[in-house]
Design brief:
Blueprint lengths: L5 H13 L2 H8 L3 H15 L4 E4 L2 E4 L1 H24 L8 E7 L1 H6 L1 H11 L3 E7 L13 E4 L8 E16 H6 L14 E3 L23 E2 L3 H9 L4 E5 L9 E4 L6 E10 L6 H21 L4
Parallel strand pairs: 3-4, 3-5, 7-8, 7-9
Antiparallel strand pairs: 1-2, 5-11, 6-9, 6-10, 6-11
Helix pairs in contact: 1-2, 1-3, 1-4, 2-3, 6-9
Length: about 300
Amino acid sequence: MAEPKWDDLRVFLAVSRSESLSRAGKALRLDPATVGRRISRLEQALEVTLFMKSPQGYALTQAGARLVARAEAVESAILSAQDDATGGGEEMTGQIRVGAPDGCANYLLPQVCAAICEDHPGLEVQIVALPRVFNLSKREADMAITVSPPTAGRLTSQKLTDYHLHLMASRAYLEKSPPLDTLADLEKHPIIGYIADLIFDAELDYLSEIGGPRTSFASNSVSVQLNWARIGAGLVIGHDFALPFAPELTRVLATEFSLKRSFYLVRHADDHNISRLRLFAQELGTRVRHEMARLEGRT
């Protein structure tokens, strides 16, 4: 059995993460036929079958799944060596992709990441805003901000900060609507919330905290929900840190109802030796906590 070359392992990881020759080729800037030949060469060298072709794409065999951990360890070692060769130390350069829920991605991360890049001009930050859990094992991002710590996989997590939520509505809406003196009065008002079957984490099921009222307007996007509230469509459970960006809104029933949730920074366990990712995570954590305090009016 021949020892696999890194270049072939790199192609193998791309296919395992994308489950497609064409998507892997796009990521590697290779044509799909070349990707297919490289996989065949690796299988011949290892004398095993790494993928099973199905209508859904390329699925790992048991042998392929065992190879993933080995290939990722090689990948991490090479990335760490490249990091050292390009400066390492205390300077951050290169590209870092951060995945985050869209509320965090829209109202918290832009100013935080802009400040980090101002201090580190050689750094390029990409923010991927998606209303779902990121798959770091497939390298969808270098790190992800989540609302729950991971419970499986070769991942590490650290708590970034707490954040708070309240019922909110536009001042124009409140002026024309029935009185809101207690939570029982909510039944007289249209409610804005998540699409129930698209809630990807139980921590986001805010409406269950007030008895699960029926929504008149629903979206899987925090930004859409907030914009509905801004134009006076109804009441929403919104992030306090988003209020500075929505001056039309005000908290309602704040003494009767509030929620506290947390953001966590999740990273792949194999990335702990990559200095630019480690330094970025440290600076991101510090700046996120300071910015959260500022936006929520605690500083």
